[in-house]
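Treating backbone geometry as a discrete language has practical consequences that deserve illustration. Part of our work consisted of pairing the sequence of a single chain with a tokenised description of its backbone. We regard such an encoding as a compact summary of how the chain folds. The amino acid sequence and the backbone structure tokens for this protein are reproduced below.
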Amino acid sequence: MPEREQVIEAVKSCYDPEIGIDIWTLGLIYDLQLRDDGSVYVKMTLTTPFCPYGTELIEDLKQKIAGVEGVTSVEVDLTFDPPWQPSEELKAMFGI
């Protein structure tokens, strides 16, 4: 079974190409579950439902998680409920 920290590190290697910040730091990951059979479930969102890189971002995430030793499969559930909102820290980084 993969270690949670290894999977999180794989997630952190996925960057939003428009913003240049990893999707973990952006808060796009709503849920991350590692199951006993080695499968990984991710519930995530995008910064906007109209993100032009959404499909590529999800595929990149799947590939990077699948590359973690012990991962048998990856399921990504895309949701827009609740809509993504930047944290106060991100707002400060963006100058908002």
